[in-house]
Amino acid sequence: MSDAATPTPGRPTVAAQLRQLPQVHRLAESLPHAIPGVYRVAASQAVLARARLALREAPNLAAERLAHLGEEAAALAARMASPHLDRVINGTGVILHTNLGRAPLAEAALAQVDRVARGYSTLEWDPETGRRGSRLSHLDEVLPALTGAEAAMAVNNNAAAVLLALSTLAAGRSVVVSRGQLVEIGGAFRIPDVMRVSGARLVEVGTTNKTRLSDYASAIVPGETALLLHVHPSNFRQTGFVESVAPGELAALGREAGVGVMADLGSGVLFPLTMGGTDEPAVREVVAAGVDVTTFSGDKLLGGPQAGLIVGRAELVAAMRRHPLARALRLDKMTLAALEVTLRLYREGRQSEIPLWQMLSQSADRLAQRAGRLRRLVVRQLGGMAGVHLAVRRTTAPVGGGALPEVMSTTAVLAVRSESWPAEALEARLRAGTPAMAVRLAEDAVWVDLRTVAPAEEREAAGCIARALAAP
Ligand SMILES: *Cc1c(COP(=O)(O)O)cnc(C)c1O
Fold first, then answer.
1. In the sheet where 225-231 sits, what is the strand order?
2. Ligand 1 proximal residues by C-beta, below 6 Å
3. Is the link from the previous residue into 435 a cis peptide, with omega within 30 of 0?
4. Cβ neighbours of residue 114 closer than 8 Å, sequence gap 6 or more
């Protein structure tokens, strides 16, 4: 017989201990009434269920736990009472942090989301005629103007853009891709998988490190080959003996052979970007090189909302707009509003208003200055420095988001150490705070990178750090 079922003199039985547990409504009633009742009840139920389980497993360990039931339930109820999707202060320095929501939006984009979503909008209504309009028409002027393409559209994300393009243009036929470009991006987007789902047949050519134009040329079967696909190696770079074919060269081959050419750019910058020796092609250059269809993300180097942009030849874009998947992958009004205004900022030469470019353009000196200011704010909030070590350090950080993998930007961090908490505990306390704060752990310290902390967030960040440092 197990210990749990054996009554021992002087020890309460499991049944007796279970009877000692408060009733749900009593526990719920004892929690702070600032928390809505639904969460107090739900948290009490969850905490009591856990306590019953713990009692059955280890009947004599639970006494201490019982004493803390109220605190446990109050903490859980408080967590339940705030939105699960919530804001985070990004102290990692990774600007396009996929887990933290990639690109923050520009003020102008946010204002338009508010304006459009607060009431009704011209989403699918043409005020000139009073008739039904198309939700894609909102991008019809700005996207071609920015990219030089004949036509354009946008869907839920770049993965959706690639899926829609392949499904429309290549289902039942074959698509030629270099073995060096059968990439996986972000853990779930794999070119061979997307290809399978679209109904297109993947024809691999070349080798991992070298693919030549002649490899593509000899894979083309008239009537069977639908597309030559170029995939941008967004999140990795090959060095050494490597050879690949540029989208422009593929376009020339495609024209000659009467086969379509598509480029998945991934990040997709709207102006040529030279940073740390990288060569991100501007979308306009790829279009000008004769590529028929080009896809890229809205929330990577565009600095807008999650979206997948498709630009290219008018009849191909028209066919994609008519495909049944277009409806399933379409954008909602809030994303469309943010995307249109973000694109307009580029069109008007106002890209410096986009947070991504603001963060990227801050010099290491300026960031070091801001790290010094953050240090002073933390000291002030703590009311001293006893047992705490705060140092401004210069270091490097990646851009993230599967963009510019070889570019490390020089940055400055506030390195935080405490004599009361190991760095891991400090990091956990920052995550548990309100707002939560994401940081890097390095050299037995917590590093807060100022590049991704907005100047307007500094005071709040200092408060988070001071609370995390507060003595046990
Ligand atoms: C990021 C990326 C994707 C996926 O884009 P999402 O907008 O995240 O769906 C697809 N292809 C390439 C080359 C990428 O870099």
1. 151-155, 308-312, 293-297, 260-266, 225-231, 174-178, 201-205
2. 157-159, 185-186, 189, 231-232, 234, 264, 266-267, 297, 308, 402
3. yes
4. none
Res 277 pLDDT > 70: no
CATH code, 396: 3.90.1150.110
Structure tokens at 121: 């909008």
- Residue 2 within any structural domain of the chain: no
| In contact, 397 and 94? CB cutoff 8 Å | yes
Angle at 462 between CA 457 and CA 467, to 5 degrees: 130
Report the predicted TM-score, pTM, of the whole model to 2 decimal places. 0.92
Mean pLDDT of 265-286: 83
Angle (nearest 5°) at CA 267 between 261 and 270: 85
Q: Is the pLDDT at 254 greater than 50, yes or no?
A: yes
* Residue 126, helix vs strand vs coil: strand
Residue found by looking up tokens 């954008």 in the block = 331
Same domain, residue pair 366 and 465: yes
Helix, coil or strand: residue 227: strand
pLDDT confidence of residue 151: 98
Residue 3, pLDDT > 60, answer no
Substitution candidate for ligand 1 out of 162, 185, 310 with most atoms within 8 A of CB? 185
| 310 touches 147 (CB < 8 A) | no
Tokens of 32: 């702070």
Among candidate residues 276, 290, 450, the one with its CA nearest the CA of residue 371: 450
- 365 & 297 share domain: no
Final residue belonging to a domain, choices 326, 353, 380: 353
CA–centroid distance, residue 266 to ligand 1 (Å): 5
Paired tokens of 306: 């999650």
Number of domains in the chain: 3
pLDDT at 129 over 70: yes
Whose structure tokens read 């699918």? Answer: 124
Strand 184-185 vs strand 403-418: parallel, antiparallel, or unpaired? unpaired
376 by Cβ neighbours in 10 Å (0-12 / 13-18 / 19+) ranks as exposed
- Say how far apart CA 461 and CA 89 lie, in whole Å: 7
Cα four-point dihedral sign 433, 436, 437, 438: positive
What span, in angstroms and rounded, lies between the C-alpha atoms of 315 and 248? 20
- CB-based contact 417:441 (threshold 8 Å): no
Quote the CA–CA distance of 180 and 236 in Å, as a whole number: 11
Pocket of ligand 1, candidates 184, 191, 234, 309: which has the most ligand atoms within 8 Å of its Cβ, to mutate?
234
